[in-house]
Amino acid sequence: MNIHPIKESIKANIQQSEDLVIKELKAEEKYLEVIYINTICDETQLQDFLIKPFFEIGENSHFLSYLLSHPKVKLFDSKKTVQEELISGKSVVFFENHIFLLDSKLDKNNTVTETSVEVTILGPQSGFSESLPTNVGLIRQRYPEKTLVIESTNIGSISKTSVNIVYDSKKVDQDVLNKVKEFLSSIEIEMFQSGEQLLDFTKKSKRTLFPTIMVTERPDRTAVNIAAGKVILLIAGSPFAMLMPTVLKDQMSAMADIYQTYWIGKFLLIVRYIGLITTITLPALYVALTSYNPEVFRAQLALSVAGSRHAVPYPSFVEVIIMLLMMELLMEASIRLPKAIGSTATTVGGLILGQAATEAGLVSNIMIIIVSLGAISNFVIPISTFSFAVRVSKYFILLLSIFYGLVGVILGVFMLLAYMVSLDSFGKPYLTFREERV
Amino acid sequence: MNRYFLYLVLLNMLTNVIIFVPKFLLQYRFDGMLISIIIAIGVGMALMYVDSLVFARFPGQGFPDIIQDQLNKPLKTIILVTFALFWFIAGLLTLLGYIDILHRFINPELSKAWLIAIFLLILCFVIQIPTKKVMYLLEIILFINVPFIVFIFFKAVTSEYLSWDSIFEAGTHFYSMPNISAVAVASYVFSGYTNIIIFNRLFKVKLKGVNFLIIFGLSILTLFTSVMVPIGMHGVDKVSEYIYPWILMVDSLRLPYSPIERALFIFLMLYINITVISVAVHWHVAFELMKGTFSRGKGKKKNRIVLALFFTIPILLVIRIDYMQPELLSVYWLIARMFFEILAVLGFFFFLKRRKV
Predict the structure, then answer these.
(1) Which residue in B has a C-alpha nearest to residue A433's C-alpha?
(2) Whole-number Cα distances in Å, A144 to A86, A147, A149, A243, A255
(3) Chains A and B: how many Cβ contacts under 8 Å?
(4) Residues of A with CB below 8 A from B272's CB?
(5) DSSP A295
(6) Which of A405, A414, A419 sits opposite B273 (nearest CB)?
(7) How many whole angstroms separate alpha carbon B226 and alpha carbon B98?
(8) Is the distance from CB of A153 to CB of A287 less than 8 angstroms?
(9) pLDDT in tens, A19-62
(10) All domains of chain B, ordered by start, with CATH?
């Protein structure tokens, strides 16, 4: 085979750039040429697997059989794939009349990080890394089963991000698997950087408020969910795994539940659901019970609520909206700020502003309690994408309570329930509470 | 699924107190109310059994699916539209009744049209989701609300103001001639089974006998508490003076340790959910029946027209409601309903029994 025209066309097609390396190796009668991009290529691997043996192995035919039998070396397929592989980090080796591809991809960011979003007190503390092979390895370690299947695919017309679909072929629901694959093949996107984009994408085809895909950074959660028959997506370059299908009870469960005794786990779960209901309804209930139906409370309670509001110069819904907006701004600000200043923002916002606002008579004391209680309850929800959805849905109920009072709150909760019932996550009803066997 | 059938019947048992069943039955408390109730239990159970028997021959099929290829188009359309109208009115009367209650007891300043609009908005969303999901919603709503309702029933029965003497006095009028309209009204608590004409799509296995046993027990409990507890609370003579004997009865309950002292508010809040899901179930049946009249493929636009009708008709009615005496309308409808039910069930029995599946 004449390799010369192929070599030339590759050189011509690849745009000249700083990090492209074309190196010729010569030793006695042996001659070898290698092309790679040094920024995405692991040069120590190149050194170990190619350059050292090249000078150590004497004869041409011996070095050829070394290359042919090396597990990391592949024979040339076609010109197009050679170019793609070169861009993705492999080195192209020209030796005698053969072209080889040496897999010397640089695996950056493969350090396992500590969990930062889903923190637990007990149980494993490490999360995923940003490297795909490392993440697959983490799952394999935790799930040593023959039936574990790892399929590979690419998403993104420019980014060509490699995505691994991981599931247990014995436990997975075949319908769900087909729906997931159908969903992935339907995605048209240029830059696919992280799995969270899938959440946004489901919104485009069928806009939903609540996430139907779970995003997690915990390998232990991922392994447990594989055992429960779910389909996992691992995305190259993202320290988060996507779990499908995901229903409400998954969003409300924390890994801490299974690292506790049975009753403590159940108690924590109940507390979390109470938090969910509180954060959704509390501001709306305040408006309904102060402005519409104060007679619902027993007289003493109604009077003390009204007494705390006596200095406030506008209706209760204005007060609630001002305070909720302030809380949202505070939360957004504390995410954006660097960690060092973050605590200042919460002190200034939470303590000083709240205190000053009540003393100035702009909001009532009870309002401050309600807003902070609502915010704290919101933080109880373990999965952050879901807690954002809950943050939004409380405004819907607040709106209804402004126009309808207590009836509006009840109807709002009903509507939210009906909406959740109407949702599907890859064929699973969203409000199902049936336990999968783990 | 067996329990779904139970939910459908249970739903109507719960709504009976707001659709004027107690008020009307109490008018006959000296003239055969009790015997009428017992006859109604017999009639209701028999109708339910026959109907479930007929539909058990078509597992997984609703009424429109069954007659799809059996009848010619105009006849089919007439039958389905008549049925749909009946189910629409069933839901409508429940809704109007409850709007009236809310207007009286919770939001007297809010106009009824404005109040009903939000109910209709939610209903329009709920009735168009798939039948299976309406059922899921029904299950969830019952699970959340029924424990509290049972608690209030329990509070009522154990209340120290409940006069058992009045109840026994009503019992002494047991031996009198039954009244046909009282029978018709009392049999309303069973008529949840009629929703099977659409919800049969979910029933793939035969209903077990134990379901009927549970329904039998619950119906006795429901009917007797819904007339006897108001009698015990208000006294046997004056009980029929009220339009809403049940709701005023609940208003006399006090929860001394709860932040909400009057049980009435809790009761009404719970019944908002029960009412909405009850209307949603009935209207879902009506909506699916209307869908059965459309030929395949071009349903979308017509669905919207039907939804628009479901939205506008109640608003127009509620504006004029004070001139129409809803309690009287409800009673006429309750009586008409039983005859329609008997006719329909007999029709199903003779017509569908002969058909091969």
Answers:
(1) B140
(2) 33, 9, 11, 19, 20
(3) 70
(4) 407, 410-411, 414
(5) G
(6) A414
(7) 17
(8) no
(9) 788 888 887 777 888 888 888 888 888 888 888 888 888 777 88
(10) 2-354 (1.20.1730.10)
In chain B, residues with a C-beta closer than 8 Å to the C-beta of A428 are none
Domain boundaries, chain A: 4-102, 132-246, 257-429
A405/B136 touch (CB, cutoff 8 Å), yes or no: no
pLDDT tens-place string over residues B51-89: 888 888 888 888 888 887 777 788 888 888 999 998 999
Q: Contact A115/A125 with Cβ under 8 angstroms?
A: yes
Long-range contacts of A167-172 (CB under 8 A, 24+ apart): A167/A226, A167/A229, A167/A230, A167/A231, A167/A232, A168/A143, A168/A226, A168/A227, A168/A229, A170/A145, A171/A147, A171/A226, A171/A227, A171/A228, A171/A229, A172/A229, A172/A230, A172/A231
Average pLDDT of chain A?
Answer: 83
For residue A196, pLDDT over 60 is answered with yes
What integer best gives the mean pLDDT of chain B? 86
Strands A30-37 and A231-235: unpaired
- A301 neighbourhood in chain B, CB within 8 Å: 259
Q: Measured between beta carbons, which residues in chain B are less than 8 angstroms from residue A209? A: none
Closest CB from B106, B125, B140 relative to A431: B140
**Residue B242 CA neighbour count, 13 Å, CB half:** 25
Tens digit of each residue's pLDDT (9 = 90 or more) over B244-261: 888 888 888 888 888 888
**B137:A417 CB<8 A:** yes
Give residue-wise pLDDT tens across range A305-334.
888 888 888 888 998 998 899 888 888 888
Cβ pair B133:A422 closer than 8 A: yes
- Residue B261 is nearest to which of A298, A421, A431, comparing CB atoms? A298
Those residues whose C-beta lies under 8 Å from the C-beta of residue A23, and which sit 6 or more positions away, are: A33, A34, A35
- What ipTM goes with this model? 0.92
Nearest to B260 among A296, A404, A414 (CB): A296
- By C-alpha distance, the chain B residue nearest A412 is B122
CA–CA separation, B111 and A322 (whole Å): 28
- Residue of A100, A92, A35, A104 lying closest to A74 (CA atoms): A100
In the prediction, which pLDDT does A205 show? 53
Contacts of B110 in chain A (CB under 8 A): 404-405
